Input
Amino acid sequence: MKLEENKYFKAVVKDAWPYTLGAVLLALLNITLFISNGSPWGVTTPFLYWATWIYKAFGGQVENWVYFNNPAHLKAINLSFLTHGGSLMNIGIIFGAFIASLAASQFKIRKIKSIRQVIVAISGGLLMGYGTRIAFGCNIGAFFSGVASFSLHGWVYTIFIFVGAWIGSKLLVKFFM
Amino acid sequence: MAEFRLDCLGEACPVPLLKTQKKLANLKIGDLLIVEIDHSCAMKNVPEWARKEGHHVEIEETGDGEWEIYIEKTK
Amino acid sequence: MQTNPTVTEKGTVRQRKKKKNQFPVAIVILAIVIWFAIILGQKSPRLALSWVFGIAFGVVLQKSRFCFTASFRDPVLTGSTSLTKAVIIALAVASVGFAAIQYGAVSKGLPVPGFVSPVGWHVAIGAVIFGIGMVISGGCASGTLMRVGEGFMMQWLSLLFFVVGALWGAHDYGWWKKVFIDGTSGIHLPSVLGWPVAFVLQLLVLGLLYIVADQWGNRQKD
Output
């Protein structure tokens, strides 16, 4: 196909981009987002809202939880998947990755291969979700945006996420390979 | 000059690289290892590691989101 | 990245799976995404912007295979620091931009914008828990979303439980607040050390970390 043989098409659409380019672009996007939105990039608080909206839809009540004793949270839990900015951004990330992989013809449904993968996906997901609520964020909100915000918590997060990654690696090799 | 296949289809990061490192250590110089992957991160980090080690590496896209990484052990 | 077709030394012929051209599908999805952006924009330009930023983040993450998990995990697990170095670059560039934004706001007498959260053991414990989770599941927060879009069913499952875990964490938050968070506060380094010191110190530390990462990554070669 003529388009696919075009070297610009190949470089931009087909081939993987260098890590350094990705780094600079992510930083520039975060800066631009911060300017236009008033606050920088965060991923996991919308996850909490997703859970809350679903929980509330089934009759759950969270307004009396200590966590939700906060005007921003109370406002957010009355919104929904397509009316909350952070939620839309996360859904956008999924679609962005979807389009990028399709454009390169590299999209593939990778099925779960073993029960081991089920165990780590479930436990890993739970750990990550829980950890973000007590640490005030994830690798994006607490680490990337936190450090860039010159916040000490970001640096503390940096040190201890390395510790967690080390422990996780040991567990992975010992039990899950 | 033996040829070996390593099926890493369906494996999550970092398993393809770890398996490749382990397998390659057992091969003789001149042997060829063909690693089959379908993980987009692995198509970057496996060749990067192998090249850093000094081996000859080629990759071929063999399907939508599937690659074969040819590593010739050179040292 | 090299994608030269090769034939094995033995000339073995393998049944090749037929590669489908997915580019047309990408165009269709892109059209839907743009349409949705327009609809959102009519209701709220801010929401449309969030959507577009999300798409942009997703594209950049996927195209560059940008995995934060690997940046923390690989130095000890595989010996690679290429992503670690890339993350440091991202932090450095973002720090410069964020500094300008914060300085601008503070100069106008406004409160410091950005993510400054209370510092205490809760951050350490939460980060350890998060670190374990991201490595065993093979994806962090951004990485999980990226892989959901790429078709990894394992990350669909991981995302589901990430969301559940977040609610669980919010539920338990009251206890953590009582035991660890109460009494702590956010510490904005430039507010404490002054802008020149904090700014230079942060970039210096990042520069040093980059050098360390570079050395570490190269020492594994021999």
